Structure formats: structure tokens, C-alpha cells
């Protein structure tokens, strides 16, 4: 399954790269964006940076920054400026006088999003996947506005994706429920659907948001009312993607939930499940938003320095890992475990060389699930679900906690954090030495998907190995028989299939119960 997935991603990248091969004109190429964060690429063999800046000033254009490079014997100047001006909420205009001034540098071309209607003295040169290329043939004003059909397509996305997610999820769960498979196998297949379906939904959403020019509409509306603010734009656009994604995931859950509830043989309330899903996504999104705000608002002389950015990310990750217990308690209902069990757990951890600040019980979860975890760097907290406490004996609970102590003793959380930092550093340097700006959005999206997939699969491999290490520590601490009994009971209480697929294991960051027991025998 994994090999097929990797091959499919490689083919996707190849297709996108070939399909995105573009004609690159030599002259003045305007990259027009509705938000006003435009840039102009100028190819010249004899002009200097000073001359370019003077010409922009004479045309009344602001010069935010100028980057200089070489390509095919040309000096290539990338000038960041603002060309277009808002005419209406969904309409923009480029002054013909500005185009006339820029024509002194060479033939003028404009990239404009393909979801727009363009009027003016321009001729279509090339149709692109995301932007069309126009050549300026006169020097009157050029206007463009979002097509009415684009707004309809946008509405369709908000309706079709959630509904199709619901229908597919309901149909699959119904087929699984009515099959002759065992109860554990049926639950495993529905859980596998819940784990795997976010990947295609995220990819389809990213594809549609680019294809349907949602960014163009969003940029026009936001810039019309608020002007251009880089931080606001980044957070808002991420928010749109998350909104559609959350709605789709809620509809997916609502699709399979009735059958999942019957198989679990317990009352699982849709409202509580929806709330828990939203909070789980927020736990991931909030750090992302904080990072975006941080990196976009630091001085440019800091963010332009690769080593500074890496250093900031390392500090950010360490702070995030230190505050992870606070994030858990912020988004989930948790309360301190009552003594004497709390004191016994803290003492058990202390005897094994780990100081625990507190033991928290997670209550009011959407379904009954026995589980445990440890979080934090400086101040460590043990988290137990109420179902684990209710169904396991004291010895079995300590056996499960021994596994978590193994994670702490061998610094598995730190290893996971180092892996994230290492991957970030590799991506930063790849971005620095490989000109990603040459890729179109489709190619970049395919590459980014491949990078994210590689990150997930490699991280999954590492975490599965660390789970085996923690299992071995637990078996040595409390005894192999007791720990194997605790693992078997986890599978029984949670109605889990003992042998699960490799891809499922990598995505859940845990090996199957059967594999874990075999490793201990």
C-alpha cells in the first residue's frame, strides 16, 4: 500500500511539472495580485538597479525592495511594488500611464488570475493553470474583475465537498456494517477511514482553492475593506482552508457515526464528537497561527537570515513542547486525579527516576476509550482517560504508565521534536538553494504534498520504533506478563483489531497490538 502511494505521488509530481512548463518572455513581466503585493520582473542586459528604481519613482510607483539575479545572460531585477488600484470590491485597475512608463524597459506582460475577465489593450499570450499571461499592446488602462461563474463555483465548493464527504462516508460505513466481518475488523475499517480521509480532502481542497481562484476573491475583498496586511492575509486564508476542512470532516464523521456507534455499543453524541474534532484541530492550528504572526512581524533583517530563522524555530519548538500540557488542558476537560491513586502514580514515577508534577484525568470525551500519555519538558504531566481508570486494575494502570515513563526516560518527545526541527532545517536550505519560484502553484503544491507525506511517513517510522522501545522498558519495569496483559486489555476494552495495516500504524504513530506483543515474547 505504501509503495503504491509513494509511486502515485512521484507520478503526480512528474505530471504537474510537465504540465506546468511555461513560456518565459524576456522584457517586463508584471505579477499582479489583488491585495497590492505585486512584483515586476525585468530582464535587461545593460540597465542598473539604480536606473530601475529611478524609473519606478518617475512612474509614481513605490519600491519596497529590489532583488537582482542572473539568467541566460540577462540581469534580472525583481521589484516589489503596488501597481493595481481597487475600483470595486471584486474589480482592479492598472493605470495605462504606468504601463507606458514600464514599456521604456521592454515589452510589457501581465500575469492575471485566470478566474478574471480582463479588459484593455492586451492580448492573451498563454493560458496557465492558475494565471493567464497577457501582452500589453497599447497603453490604455487595464481592468480585471472576478467572473460571476467563479463566485458560483466557490459556493459549490462549500456545498459539494461536505455533502460528498458525508455520502461517501455513509456509504462506506454501511457496506462495512452489513458485511460478514468481525466486530473488531468493522470498527478498524471505519477508524481507518477516519484516519485516511483527511489526506485526500486536504489535497482536493488545496487544488480547488487554487483552481477556483479563492485567493483572488479573498485578496480583493480583504484589501478593499482593510488594505494590505500580510499577517491578516496569511491567517485569514489559512482560516478559510481550515473552515472548509473542518466542515468536511464534521460531515464525514456524521456519515459513519451511526454505524460506528452501533458497533461500539455505546451512546456517542454527534455534538460532542463535533466539538472534540474542532478542539483537536485547534490544538494543531493555534501554534501554526502563532508561528505565522511571529515570522511575519519580525524585522526583515532577521527573517532574511536563515540561521536566525532556524534559531527562532528551535526556541519556538522548545516553548511549544514545554507548554504542551497547557494546550491539552486548554482544549480538553481535564482535572487532577484524586488520591490515593494519584499519590501512588507519582511515587511510582519517582521510584523509576521521573518527577511528575500532576496526574490529570481526561473526562467528557466523545467515546469511551482507554488511553494514557505524558506531556511536558520542564514540568511533566501524566494524562489518563476516565475509561482507563474505570476498567483497569491499579497494577494494570501502573503497567500502562510504565510505558509512558519509558518515553520520558529515553527522551522520546525530545527525539520527535529534534526530527521536526531537522526536517524544517532541510526544507529551509532546500528552499534557499533551489529556486521554488520557478515552479507554478500546481507543481509547488505537488512537491509540498510529497514533502508533507515524506515527513509523516518518516515520523511514523521513528515513532513506531520508539513505541517498541517504551514497551520493552515497561516490560522490564513491571514484568513481561503483566505488561502483555495490559496491552491485551487495551485491545479488548477499546474493541481494537490486534493486527492493523502498516500505513494505519504509521499515521497513528503506533504499531499494532499483535506486533507489540510479539516483540516482547
Question: Could you characterize the architecture of this molecule?
Answer:
- The protein is elongated.
- Strand 1 (about 30) and strand 2 (about 40-45) form a beta hairpin.
- About 60% of the residues lie in helices and about 15% in strands.
- Strands 3-4-2-1-7-10-9 form a seven-stranded mixed beta sheet, covered by helices on one side.
- The protein has 20 helices and 15 strands.
- With about 525 residues, the chain is of the alpha+beta class.
- Helix 13 packs parallel to helix 15 (about 395-410) and helix 18 runs antiparallel to helix 20.
- The model has no long low-confidence stretch (mean pLDDT about 80).
- It has helices spanning about 1-20, 50-60, 95-100, 150-175, 185-195, 200-210, 215-225, 230-265, 270-295, 300-305, 305-320, 325-330, 340-350, 385-390, 395-410, 410-435, 440-480, 480-495, 500-510, 515-520, and strands at about 30, 40-45, 65-70, 75-80, 85-90, 90-95, 110-115, 115-120, 120-125, 130-135, 140-145, 335, 360, 370-375, 380-385.
- The two termini are about 30 Å apart.
- The longest helix is centred in the last third of the chain and has 38 residues, at about 440-480.
Instruction: Describe the sheet with the most strands.
Output: 7 strands, mixed
Measured between the Cα atoms of the first and last residue, the distance is 28 Å
- Based on DSSP secondary structure assignment, what is the total number of beta strands? 15
Strand content: 5-15%
The computed structural class is alpha+beta
Widest β-sheet, arrangement of strands? 3-4-2-1-7-10-9
Helix content: 55-70%
Radius of gyration: 28 Å
Please mark out the parts with pLDDT under 50 across 5 or more consecutive residues, or reply none: none
Arithmetic mean pLDDT: 82
What general form does the structure show?
Answer: elongated
Number of helices: 20
